[in-house]
Amino acid sequence: MKAIRVAEFGGPEVLRLEEVPEPAPGAGEVLVEVRAAGVNPVETYIRAGRHAVRPPLPYTPGVDGAGVVAAVGEGVGAFAPGNRVYLSGSRTGTYAERAVCLGSQVHALPERTSFAQGAALGVPYVTAYRALFGPTRARPGETVLVHGGSGGVGIATIQLARAAGLRVIASAGSERGRELVREQGAHEALDHGSPEERQALLDLTGGRGVDLIVEMLANVNLARDLTMLAQRGRVVLVGSRGPIEIDPREAMVRNAAILGVFLYSLTEAEVAEAHAALGAALESGAARPIVAREMPLAEAPEAHEAVLRPGAAGKIVLVP
Questions:
Q1: What is the CATH number of the domain that holds 216?
Q2: Which residues, 6+ apart, have CB-to-CB distance to 175 below 8 Å?
Q3: Is residue 63 in a domain?
Q4: What range does the domain containing 103 cover?
Q5: Residues 214-221: what's their mean pLDDT?
Q6: pLDDT tens string 124-151
Q7: b/e for 281-314, b at 16 or more Cβ within 10 A?
Q8: Beta-carbon count within 10 A of 45 CB
Q9: Where are the alpha helices (DSSP H) in the chain?
Q10: Pairing between β-strand 229-237 and β-strand 210-215 as defined by DSSP bridges
Q11: Which of the two ends of the chain, N or C, has the fewest CB atoms closer than 10 A to its terminal CB?
């Protein structure tokens, strides 16, 4: 079968399409024929060797995907060959024609959700769920700013927050992005490239600020985020590409909290809770992944460049 392999850490050019032996599921495992694989920014950091997670070389990237169960190992009773599933984790990597996953990493995919949409579920929607309902404990009636709302995690956060009864303000760097966040449920949309963003947000909240900020680019925005919080507000950090200097007094005078989301440290119970909520959101229609671009597996290097460019309008997926 064909798979993307990484033999050394480096730039996108280290992603190479190769012929590899087809894996087989062991006890408690599921073999899935991958129809689409999600591309996440974190995978670019891992590939470059700039992440806390450094898999043994060589490896196949990818944790998100969707497809059809091809075979199940001993002890797996929840799935059978032919079942439509989405993947949130893989033992062999999802940038491939087939992937082996633990039974706990495989989840039912409703018929109305396409494989490309299924590949956009795992990292973005679990991250969004944890950002809203983990230690931050977002509550109905609160106001949330989704700072960078037009990418995969941002769209997921908007949808889940709106379904939970929050007032949603979202930002994007382009007019198309702002149209998209409104379409996905944001009550108001801001331009996060504008020097007037902070004042515009304060005007929308009557000078109070927001209860929660879900931040996609902390190394650029965190210092300003702290000045846009209401009393006892929270900033939850989803993404960052470097350090930033902040004034701690801005947090102190607001009795504010800064929290982070790191999926690799979640407990099994926390992951199971998120997928139970996600399953209900798929059934109700609250979770509706937006796919911006489908690319052939061989174009994984270009996908890794594209996923980091500004102006996101949904999720990038690879199609084997």
A1: 3.40.50.720
A2: none
A3: yes
A4: 2-121+289-319
A5: 96
A6: 999 999 999 999 999 999 999 999 999 9
A7: bbeeebbbbbbbbbbebebbbebbebbeeeebbb
A8: 16
A9: 41-48, 115-118, 122-133, 152-163, 175-183, 197-204, 218-226, 248-252, 268-284, 300-306
A10: parallel
A11: N
Residues 113 and 214 in one domain: no
pLDDT of residue 89: 96
H or E stretch at 3: strand 2-6
pTM of this prediction exceeds 0.85 = yes
Residues 131 and 227 in one domain: yes
Find the farthest-apart pair of alpha carbons in the chain and give their distance in angstroms, rounded: 61
Q: Tell whether 94 is covered by a domain.
A: yes
The chain-wide mean pLDDT, for the chain, equals: 96
Partners of 295 in the β-ladder: 318
- Same structural domain for residues 196 and 174? yes
Residues 250 and 137 in one domain: yes
User: Locate tokens 């001993």: which residue?
Assistant: 74
CA distance linking residue 62 with residue 47, whole number of Å: 10
